């Protein structure tokens, strides 16, 4: 049955422009294609480490991290990009290729195009971060900045592709892209024995499709788990509706996963192989990024941190005591965004807290509050006070204090202290204990 869940005619026209991604005739990627991709790309792609993680202690699982953010351009996208480029005919190679992307796919195609001497054009929307445009230019690509968003940039790319006879390479649904992404699973299965599950960040579904084909062929008992952000949950929508469905996207820390509709080939390939799909909230993605930096010294972008976010949000509890591989799919995160993520992560962890306290407005009232906070070793990061809109008497002032604490228990101590002294007091958005993963102290996991 053809799967029609498309938004409108405009979308239909866009799809029919890509002969490799035909909704009426989706392609299932085979295991043989993945092994062939692995052979072809072996000299240009790193076999990245898959290492036992310190995070195991925190989660009560044996966790291994497949560090594909260590690829040259910082993401796994190079696997598919290189394979798709290598599969072109000589004539196609000399004409060149075109892609529309905001991020990792663009960088991967530009870098490998340059390596292989294939001209690359990428179309990026006007909103593309200057850093990413710059990176693609460094790889000698022809960068076209046009369109207000990705959908418009894609239309521009299709137009140029037709005019100049360039092959359009979809970053998650081109069959060669999917086959290339699947090579990561071959490496994982060689690197880690006795795996119980592999957790895969999911956007357009190309990585998930490639991984599930390889895993289910080589070791069907290994569970394949997809993870997406609740702000771009297009794979869950596809599952709910029996096929790719347009899903409006909201801003997310996992911008690499922000694809409004999963690929038709990716869906057709993965839908019967996937064991579980987890949808995570943004605060867990922020917390996961923070944990990777603090515990692993790894800078991982939001999309790449989703696997850990799934664990931290308590959605993979059935794997306590089991062996899990998390794919750290990318590390390209803007420094400004990283700063914001860390603050959000600290807040989600109960280590950055905001309290609203009404204190005496007589001399020394605010000073007394500050002394009390510092008496237990909590430091004040920010403090503002408010007089005009305070409902209590005119001799009171409302103070908003942002504090840094050592950990959640320290914050609870602060709350108890302030509660004992002040009548009007509240902590804003303080996480409850259940939402935090308690450290798992058993020494079960000292050995991989
Ligand atoms: C870092 C990262 N992780 C995961 C994904 C998801 O891959 P896919 O779109 O094939 O599902 C992407 C996609 O761009 C990505 O950049």
TrEMBL record:
GO terms, molecular function: L-serine ammonia-lyase activity; threonine deaminase activity
Superkingdom in the source lineage: Eukaryota
Gene3D superfamilies linked: 3.40.50.1100
Protein name as annotated: L-serine deaminase
Lineage start: Eukaryota, Metazoa, Ecdysozoa, Arthropoda, Hexapoda
GO biological-process terms attached to the record: isoleucine biosynthetic process; L-serine catabolic process; L-threonine catabolic process
Keyword list, A-Z: Lyase, Pyridoxal phosphate
UniProt-listed CDD domains: ACT_ThrD-II-like (cd04886), Thr-dehyd (cd01562)
Keyword Lyase: yes
Cofactor(s), names only, from the UniProt record: pyridoxal 5'-phosphate
Pfam family, one: PALP
Extent of Basic and acidic residues compositional bias: 1-13
Entries under InterPro entries matching the protein: ACT_ThrD-II-like, Ser/Thr_Dehydratase, TrpB-like_PALP, TrpB-like_PALP_sf
Family (UniProt): Belongs to the serine/threonine dehydratase family.
Limits of the Tryptophan synthase beta chain-like PALP domain: 42-330
Region (Disordered): 1-20
Species: Dendroctonus ponderosae
